[in-house]
TrEMBL record:
PROSITE patterns: FAD_PCMH (PS51387). SUPFAM superfamilies: CO dehydrogenase flavoprotein C-terminal domain-like, FAD-binding/transporter-associated domain-like. The keyword Flavoprotein applies. Keywords: FAD, Flavoprotein, Oxidoreductase. Transmembrane segments: none annotated. The lineage of its organism: Bacteria, Pseudomonadati, Pseudomonadota, Betaproteobacteria, Burkholderiales. This is Xanthine dehydrogenase family protein subunit M. PANTHER family: XANTHINE DEHYDROGENASE SUBUNIT C-RELATED.
Amino acid sequence: MYDFTFQRPSSLADATRAAQAGGAKLLAGGQTLLASMKLRLANPETLVDLGAIPELAGVRREGDRLVIGAMTRHADVAAHADVRSALPALAELAGGIGDRQVRAMGTLGGSVANNDPAACYPAAVLALDGTVHTTQRKITADDFFQGLFTTALQEGELVTAVSFPLAKRAAYIKFKQPASRFALIGVFVAQTDGGVRVAVTGGGNGVFRHTGLEQALTRSFTPEAAAAVKVDPSTLSSDLHASAAYRANLVSVLTQRAVAKALGT
């Protein structure tokens, strides 16, 4: 690592000021940033640790929504009684991220802000039509995720929480890349009064919605309806782990399984 200045603010106001300084990077769970620094792929002049700001962590119920603080650890989301009862698919997703050490340190806000193209949380935020709360505004999921490690966040803007509407039915299934435990393909399906949303992670430059699957499942929320939709491999990535055609087949199969799981069958 290179030399850097370490700050650990105890208030959101102090963190916002520190983040707006030139050369500053925010440290949430550190699962990506610290590894990048060790490899000298990132060289921040200042590292701002958000771990001492109490208002950034926790889960609360607000009407028909769950609001989860940005610094809430994966393990805490997975174990929280409100999440397990109101959005069990989200609790299960959090419990399947990485390994126990990653879940003990990684955070919801860090994952969402980083927007790794194979991360699990972005699929949940997008499929559930979540809203990302920041120090400046509220951003809908459809507007927030913009591509490979790219979001709508501006320089110095901090994620403070994510709010999730409650779904009638929801399920997440991923096919893990065995070494990293990231999703080779992950599919989150959510059925709401307004229709069905299907978010896919691991397939390319970032999380995306599959409109063909959404339309078919809105008409008939069954595995058979999902199976009838052709998934175009030309829109998916191909690498040493899997071809685009293999990923396309996974999207179809995992969507069918997610629907069956959401139906309890």
